[in-house]
Specification:
This protein is an alpha/beta fold and 459 residues long. The protein contains 18 helices and nine strands. It is globular.
Length: 459
């Protein structure tokens, strides 16, 4: 007689309540959260140090002749060697024979040399009209886990390798971008918080001048606002281990801005809270100091994100090729419409009453980017998203590759990863994924600059 197979039940049936209760810990009080946070802080620090040098500082690796001639400067390896031999004052790199390694500072010097001495038909320096200001790029979506920080970080690194001077502003109190770029942010006074506070304090100061002239009571400036008036963006911008990427970092206390900004607005209804970020970028010459400014936003449509969106020339919206992320992104666009349209309606009603010109929010371009794309499983869904979003969509879908995960374990971007630590094919394929994303972004960027200089100036 054959043995009958044993009937099994799902693991969630026949559970014993008394045994389940015996496995529970004692009730949790708030001090346990502090203990968990302390453990996580120690673990976060230990993990972050994986990408750091023994002295606790991040260092950007050097770049080989192969990388420079394949990805960075459009010259043949043999020609680069001839130029270096003929110009001993140029950086010569380290290493023997044809395998030389250069710092990014040295690569930038070589770029400048070829731009002045090389073939005129080649692009040794990236396009940027001298009369144009920096473009501000906001990377936003209120759904977490869609690749906002990864997209912003890799675009910033791509642009830096391409020769642009970049500022990255981390607006997410989780500080992931700050960790990637090795930033040191001891408290909220090293974030954008004092710069937005300064914008409010300047508005209060101007309002108080009017009130004094009219004999009205003035709005008090507390100690925080008085201190903020003394802060410059130069106080909070820090260098990174990338020679042409600077950072305004973030840390947990930055989240208090989400509570403080509406309180300030209630104290002075005429303060345009959405312009705090825009104003310091414009008023303090930051737009003249950089080519591109990337804003990494928190996964919420809060006051910091509203500031980032209002300041942006280009809006990038990462999302995965799934129904839930498509649905969430659609709601994000709906909230953008209702938020900014309501600001316009409220402000313009007052402006019309005062016979002032009306305001209007505008962006040079908006693009949704499919990230972490798996063509074997997500092509149909990506096609649906493409059909509905139409010209809001990037054409290229950013593949997820093994290189992304391996680099992430070291708290590095893929451009910081040494290709010798990977299979060459894996590295080339992984790098191509982000290079193609950057290529599409760069086309938008230079098109916006060209339009600014050649069309809008003639209106």
């Amino acid at each position: 007689m054959s043995k009958q197979p044993t009937q099994t039940v799902p693991p969630y049936l026949n559970l014993n309540p008394e045994a389940a209760a015996a496995r529970l810990p004692d009730p949790i009080d708030t001090t346990r959260f502090a203990k968990a946070a302390a453990f996580c802080a120690k673990g976060r620090e230990d993990l972050a140090r994986r990408g750091y040098a023994p002295d606790g500082q991040k260092r950007l690796r050097k770049f080989s002749t192969w990388e420079i001639t394949k990805y960075l400067i459009p010259v043949a390896p043999a020609h680069l060697r001839r130029v270096l031999k003929a110009n001993p004052e140029l950086p010569q790199g380290e290493g023997d024979g044809g395998s030389k390694w250069f710092t990014l500072e040295e690569v930038l010097t070589l770029r400048q040399h070829f731009a002045s001495e090389g073939v005129s038909t080649k692009e040794y320096l990236p396009y940027r009209p001298k009369e144009a200001q920096a473009k501000v790029v906001s990377v936003a979506n209120f759904k977490g886990g869609v690749g906002k920080t990864s997209t912003a970080a890799h675009l910033a690194m791509s642009a830096a390798l391409d020769g642009y001077k970049v500022l990255v502003i981390d607006l997410d109190s989780q500080g992931s971008m700050t960790s990637i770029l090795g930033g040191s942010v001891p408290d909220e006074w090293s974030t954008v918080f004092p710069l937005i506070a300064k914008d409010f304090a300047k508005s209060v100061t101007a309002e108080n001048e009017v009130r004094r002239a009219g004999g009205q009571a003035e709005i008090p400036l507390d100690e925080t606002l008085q201190e903020a008036l003394q802060v410059s963006s130069r106080n909070v911008i820090q260098k990174t281990h990338w020679p042409n990427i600077d950072l305004i970092g973030a840390q947990l206390n930055l989240y208090w801005a989400e509570f403080q900004i509406p309180v300030w607005r209630m104290g002075l209804r005429s303060w345009p809270l959405w312009d705090g970020l825009t104003n310091f970028l414009e008023d303090e010459g930051v737009l003249d100091d950089y080519d591109i400014i990337f804003l990494d936003t928190p996964p919420a449509l809060g006051y910091l994100t509203i500031n980032a969106l209002a300041a942006a020339d280009i809006l990038l919206v990462p999302l995965g090729a799934s129904f839930l992320e498509f649905d969430s992104t659609g709601r994000f666009f709906d909230m953008l419409y209702s938020t900014f349209a309501s600001i316009e309606d409220g402000e313009n009603a007052s402006r019309r009453a005062a016979s002032l010109p009306e305001m209007k929010f505008e962006w040079d371009v908006v693009r949704a980017i499919v990230t972490r794309f798996d063509a074997s499983q997500q092509t149909d869904m990506a096609n649906v998203i493409q059909a509905y979003f139409g010209d809001f969509m990037n054409a290229y879908r950013q593949d997820y590759t093994a290189l992304v995960g391996q680099a992430g374990e070291q708290v590095n971007g893929i451009y910081e990863a040494d290709y010798r630590e990977f299979n060459r094919e894996t590295y080339v394929r992984g790098r191509e994924t982000f290079d193609r994303t950057y290529a599409e972004f760069k086309e938008l960027l230079i098109g916006c600059w060209w339009r600014d200089v050649n069309l809008e100036g003639n209106d």
